[in-house]
Write a structure and sequence with these properties.
Blueprint: E1 27-31, H1 34-37, H2 39-48, E2 52-56, H3 65-78, H4 89-92, H5 107-121, H6 135-144, H7 155-158, E3 168-170, E4 177-179
Parallel strand pairs: 1-2
Antiparallel strand pairs: 3-4
């Protein structure tokens, strides 16, 4: 999702904002969680994106301050205001009920609220880490100075909805292209 441009109408906004941010990662930095160290993740990043991965020790947030700060902001400015919020992981382990059985929002409702928060609030709030600019202003300033985000070489395949694969075939005497069984 972070690699590809987001088409208008593919995300939720109440203020008509755009989700302009995309491009190849110069390096993918993560902790040693299995989702990040898996062969699938590493090979996708290297083979499809040409991106190196750097694995850092678990529970060493100071080694990846930008994502840790985003996670804190996400918790304080977004999650705490959500119906059904139960706190950080250590608080969740003390619960006497199943979070799954007591969920308040559907996945789609949560996704809509998260996208609205990112697109309408987070991207338009000044950040001290980018000289007091908003992410939107910083992106535009970079574009204005001549920088251009780079798309992955296999952009068309990455841009497909999750889990879908594109198969093209040529049939019979007539020339036609069939994609996923549709002409």
């Amino acid at each position: 999702h972070a690699l590809c441009p987001k088409a208008e109408g593919s995300f939720h906004t109440k203020k008509g904002n755009h989700w302009n941010y995309y491009g190849l990662f110069s390096c993918f930095v993560a902790d040693g969680g299995t989702a990040f160290t898996s062969i699938e993740t590493s090979s996708f990043l290297m083979r499809i994106c040409g991106t190196l991965t750097k694995t850092l020790p678990v529970a060493a947030g100071w080694l990846k301050p930008f994502i840790e700060r985003f996670n804190l902001t996400l918790r304080i400015k977004f999650a705490k205001k959500m119906p059904g919020y139960v706190g950080p992981m250590e608080d969740q382990m003390q619960l006497e009920f199943s979070m799954k059985d007591n969920a308040v929002l559907t996945f789609e409702e949560f996704k809509q609220r998260l996208e609205r928060w990112i697109v309408d609030d987070y991207h338009h709030t000044p950040h001290s880490g980018i000289k007091g600019l908003t992410p939107d202003e910083s992106w535009q300033e970079s574009l204005d100075s001549g920088w251009c985000p780079e798309l992955p070489p296999n952009y068309e395949q990455i841009a497909l909805p999750c889990g879908k694969v594109r198969f093209a075939t040529i049939n019979g005497d007539k020339i036609s292209v069939e994609i996923n069984g549709k002409a």
